[in-house]
Design a protein that fits this description.
Layout lengths: L6 H24 L5 H21 L6 H26 L5 H23 L4 H25 L5 H26 L11 H38 L9 H18 L3 E8 L2 H8 L1 H18 L5 E6 L2 E7 L3 H16 L12 E8 L7 H17 L5 E3 L8
Parallel strand pairs: 4-5
Antiparallel strand pairs: 1-3, 1-4, 2-3
Helix pairs in contact: 1-2, 1-7, 2-3, 3-4, 3-5, 4-5, 5-6, 6-7, 9-10
């Protein structure tokens, strides 16, 4: 059975693959915010389509011009595609931008030096393969080595690595053989080349769409679980997490503590400085408090300027130490637009829960303690004494 493929058929399939990707992503793009990352990916695909069309419809065009134009467009297209992938991962810094700009210029220059001097096809293949591999190296590394990468990121990263290895293998093979192994020479190498190109197209297009979908899903989860202003857990998510934590502590017979606090005279801050400054005070305070908590603590904006913290595995002494640290630390916090510093009042309750313990019961006790702290002159903390078990 012949393993040779028809060159024109494969190129047409590659063109249609890119075109359909452009159509589908354009449909998504029309109904969403016009993101620069998406427009860059579409331009990358359009550039690659143009490059393959030049080859398919090259009748009458001089070979030198065809080779120069096609490869230049492909290099630019791959550079833009990997740039869009890096933007999608929020890893496209100024230094990365300059790296890709210089890399694109150097690869195109190196290819044309070979083209207009020796014009040895095997050397051109090696330069082109190494160039595309260099474009893919950074996103491959980031996808695999990013902090807590998702399963899909790892898979796409590994596929990028496999393509990178195939490209480098193609380059070394081209440099090490004396046979003519061009794209237009029927051989098993030609078949391998076109299959690799098809795989690059498939992984690049599908991988980008999957990562885009994953990012959209993560944003939906963030909007559903976190407070939009402060970035801490919203009330619904806090209640859901807290119910599970209370049940776990009831099974283990361990202490936990609940803390409620709000900003002293917050209404006066809004009336004096305006709601924009009031919102900024909430943002700075929540970021500051969050930085002082442990990773296992649950921190939520419960409503308005009231915040809740559930402290797992925390007894009365540990909770009191933390509450006082939060109070004193907040007194050092300065909102630039405000003349005075912030202060908070806190209520705290500590229990060893039972299976009958409800978050609502703990909240009511803690709320009473918070109002006691306010009645005592604010900028302080109060504890609601309870029995070891609360139902």
């Amino acid at each position: 059975m012949s393993m040779l493929l028809d060159m024109k058929t494969v190129m047409v399939l590659i063109v249609f693959g890119h075109v359909f990707s452009v159509i589908l992503i354009s449909a998504y793009w029309r109904t969403h915010m016009k993101d620069h990352m998406l427009s860059m990916f579409l331009i990358a695909k359009g550039t690659q389509v143009l490059a393959w069309l030049v080859i398919v419809m090259r009748n009458g065009i001089p070979d030198l011009l065809t080779i120069s134009l096609t490869n230049s467009l492909l290099f630019i297209g791959f550079s833009l595609e990997t740039t869009a992938m890096l933007k999608l991962q929020h890893r496209f810094s100024h230094s990365i931008r300059m790296l890709y700009l210089m890399l694109t210029i150097l690869i195109i220059a190196a290819f044309h030096i070979v083209l207009f001097t020796s014009n040895h096809e095997n050397v051109r293949i090696a330069v082109a393969s190494i160039g595309i591999a260099l474009f893919m190296a950074v996103p491959a590394y980031i996808l695999i080595r990013s902090q807590n990468p998702s399963f899909i990121k790892r898979i796409i990263g590994l596929l990028y690595v496999s393509i990178l290895a195939a490209l480098l293998g193609r380059a070394f093979f081209a440099l090490g053989t004396h046979e003519m192994i061009g794209m237009f020479t029927p051989s098993l190498y030609q078949t391998f080349t076109f299959l690799s190109l098809f795989l690059i197209m498939f992984i690049g297009n599908i991988g980008f769409v999957l990562l885009l979908k994953e990012q959209a899903d993560q944003e939906l989860v963030r909007l559903a679980n976190y407070d939009d202003l402060t970035g801490v857990l919203n009330r619904r998510t806090f209640i859901s997490f807290s119910m599970r934590i209370i049940a776990e502590h009831a099974r283990r017979g361990e202490h936990l503590s609940l803390v409620l606090f709000d900003i002293d005279h917050f209404k006066k801050i809004n009336d004096t400085y305006g709601h924009v400054i009031g919102d900024r005070a909430l943002q700075q305070l929540s970021a500051h408090i969050g930085s002082l908590l442990r990773s296992k603590d649950c921190f939520s904006r419960y409503g308005g300027d009231e915040f809740a913290i559930l402290l797992p595995e925390t007894d009365e002494y540990e909770a009191d130490q933390l509450v006082e640290a939060l109070r004193q630390s907040t007194m050092q916090l300065l909102v630039p637009e405000m003349a005075s510093r912030l202060s908070i009042s806190l209520g705290v309750v500590t229990v060893i829960p039972t299976e009958q313990t409800k978050l609502e019961s703990l909240y009511k006790l803690c709320d009473k303690a918070l109002y006691t702290a306010k009645d005592n002159g604010r900028n302080g903390a109060a504890r609601m004494e309870t029995a070891a078990m609360i139902g």
